[in-house]
Amino acid sequence: MLHSWVLFLYIGFIEVVCGEVESQVSFNVNNVDYDPYEKAVNILSDKIRYDDEIDYYSKKNISGIDITIPVDYSEDEQEFRYKKFWKSEATTWQKEAIGYLTISSDKFNNTAATLLLAQIHLWGEYGYPNNKTLAYSYLNKYNEMIGFTDGEALFDLAVMLSTGLFGAIPIDIGKSLLYYQQAASLGNMKAKQALAYRYANGLNVPRDCNMALLLYRELSDEVRSKYSDYEWNVALPYMETYNIRIPDFQGGLLGEGLSSTHSSTTRKDSVRPDITSSLLTQMNGGQIVLQFGIGAKDYAADGESDDSNDKLVDLYYTAWDLYKGTYERNRDVESARTILELAIEVYSSSEPYMDNLQIYFFGKCYYLLGHIYFTGEGISKPDIERAQLLLQKSIDIVENVSAVKSKANIDMGLINQFIKNDTSKAIKYYRNVLEENVNDGTADYQLSKLSSEKPELNLGDPFVLMQTAYRRSHIAGTYEYAKMIEESVNNYYSCEDTSFLFKRFLEMNEVIVAPQLRIAFSELLKGNTEVALWAYAQAAEQGFEAAQISAAYLLYQDAYLMEEVPETTDERKSMAISYYNRAFKQNNIDAAIIAGNIFYNMKDYSKAIAMYQSASLRFAPQAIWNLGYMYEHGLGVGVDYKMAHDYYNQVLDHNPELFFAVKLTVMKLTLKSWISWLSGEPVSFWNQDKEEIDGVSIISQEEQMLSQMSIFRRFKYSVEQALLENSGHHAYPTPLTEKQINDKQQEKKKKDEKNDPTDTGWVEKFIMKIDELGLSLEDVLSIMFMAMILLVTMIIRPLIIRAGWNVRINGIVIRGNAEANGEQEQPQEVQPANIDIQFFAI
Ligand SMILES: *[C@@H]1O[C@H](CO)[C@@H](O)[C@H](O)[C@H]1NC(C)=O
Ligand SMILES: *[C@@H]1O[C@H](CO)[C@@H](O)[C@H](O)[C@H]1NC(C)=O
Ligand SMILES: *[C@@H]1O[C@H](CO)[C@@H](O)[C@H](O)[C@H]1NC(C)=O
Ligand SMILES: *[C@@H]1O[C@H](CO)[C@@H](O)[C@H](O)[C@H]1NC(C)=O
Ligand SMILES: *[C@@H]1O[C@H](CO)[C@@H](O)[C@H](O)[C@H]1NC(C)=O
To answer: How many CB atoms lie within 10 A of CB 32?
Structure first.
């Protein structure tokens, strides 16, 4: 309570001060009889309009991403911050410039000033704070002034009206559609994409696949025309993608191990024992134990130790990260090249003594350097001769020691096909890697094209080859494959498939169609969550599934066990639900569960159940689990232990790893129905809480107090954490927090249903006793079961060892002594006795 008072008084105080600032500006207004736009432009001319935080990270040698996302949102707090900025943080030039611009727009109807004001308030340019209502009013004014002829400004306005800027202005779908149409007819690409997405999904417009296809195809052709023929056919430019789902930095929407959607964060810093380690072990017959230095950066310090393995591998990965650019570091091909040249110079003398692992990475160094010379990035122009030497060397040394193929085959193929004019040699190189992981689709793409040009070469079905190129996410391949489907090559045509393929192609070209995704990420790093939200909202309208998740996540982060449910406005909640729902329709199953959880937290249980049911039809274990929970506790449905039981058991079919957690819950459930039978209480009394027993609502008071303070969830991504993430431990599914069970309405209903409310049975007395101790009965039961299981395992373990069974506890094998005794004659009989025990932290 104290907090709220302090905050309230503080706001009142600021308001007075702010009023003075504003009156200073308006004092100027009366004196000005000319348009001060030029003055404002002069002030701003030497200021930084947009600060790219990603660049900042690289320059300051900061490693690791540090993103802070506020969990709660309140208008009051936003306004408080806004006023605080103008009171104490704004510089003199900021105040002056905005004053002049405001006069220029308000008094002199200056279009340029009006647009600039809209952008300043929308994107937080020049370090101004985001203010959605002002942004909308200036953007609307600008559009009216110029008669709705600026496609980009119209698109922005349409996005504003379709999202309502998350509560800042009223949503107006009709107007927004009108503006999308108008912007599209002016040739705005984003608006076309947004419209296509709406037609494809029947979102506020009648579903019309042909319309969607028309728009998607038109856009794709436009994007295609931005590539030169050399780029398109030979060397596609490298794309730095920021098309990410924010929660993927933390293991996905549902958390590590439970999210069913593939991670979108593909450009993290390389963790040294990479995915390639499985490849390496295969190479060396599974014998090698990789010991990479975790503190990778200090390899120079302990120079003498014989971990030259680490050094070479580390050099390669350092160069690779510089080459590809990571989320916290811009690409720096020149530095990558320098490092690779150095690595090759230092290590070539020891090449004859290298083991397979070193040779493998040495070959990769040669490939990457060759590739850089081939593309000519980071140097003035391509050096094909040098590239060829390096690439051939890579192939020689890698393929000499193992069956693994070098990616250099692809570049060698391209060089031979397009520069040396030696098609047959090129085909040999392509075929070399056709079935390999290193093939990024280029080999299939080129072979497909060659095959349609020269069918006499018998290179295979061009359609099938192009399809594989698309499946390997080859950009040009995706476009050509979409074209093939559209022309019904192979007698196959589907409007949905074709428009989906063009949509995929467009999203691969995010640099062209959605450059704001990079800005969104940069704003996240700066902590400007609201600006990031705006940028993600644009991309979400364009139909980017990842952006829909990111926008939804910024609006509403699902609470995990023991966490507070976010405090935010209803507009934001419903927008979050809408985004999660759209992402679900684009096959993100996790999103449906989160949408269900938001409904659950809003106590809209029937809608929550509907969401869980949609997700359970796609076999999402968590959704099935939650359904079980709803039936167990009678939320939105009648209490039905049998249904609950069935749902919990179903989880096992889809995720056997949850065996123990499920069994425990089912046992608890059995016990529960047993107790409820004993106490002669047909309906669950489980939902009773302190509020009812004491007759005082302690919890809600606490909640009120908490809601006055903003809670921040802070997460830091670093290499160490990535290593931890890779260690892959499981968590108990956390469908809903214990506290949330307490639902007043539910209780009241139950109270009425009770025949004899005064008669408290011994069971309820027992529960009250536990409650006084600050425990819930479920906790007590859990503890009892855990203790029991521990005891049992303590007894069983020596038994196992004596019997020689193969038992795994949490994945760690406890070997019986059969092996030691040399009794290996009956392995077949040992097999069925395998036991897998898993413990879960609850
Ligand atoms: C960043 O690191 C590089 C190499 O470690 C060094 O040369 C450079 O001076 C550093 N830059 C800053 C701003 O510290
Ligand atoms: C936006 O600016 C207006 C006018 O200065 C102000 O009244 C409002 O509180 C601001 N909105 C926010 C969210 O800060
Ligand atoms: C600015 O535009 C508004 C609305 O279009 C109009 O009412 C006003 O007279 C204009 N002011 C000037 C100075 O042209
Ligand atoms: C390939 O391996 C053989 C021995 O296995 C060796 O003699 C030869 O020099 C190697 N070639 C290259 C290019 O490394
Ligand atoms: C490439 O070789 C073919 C014959 O193999 C020839 O017809 C063609 O003119 C050559 N093209 C160039 C650019 O040298």
So the answer is: 15
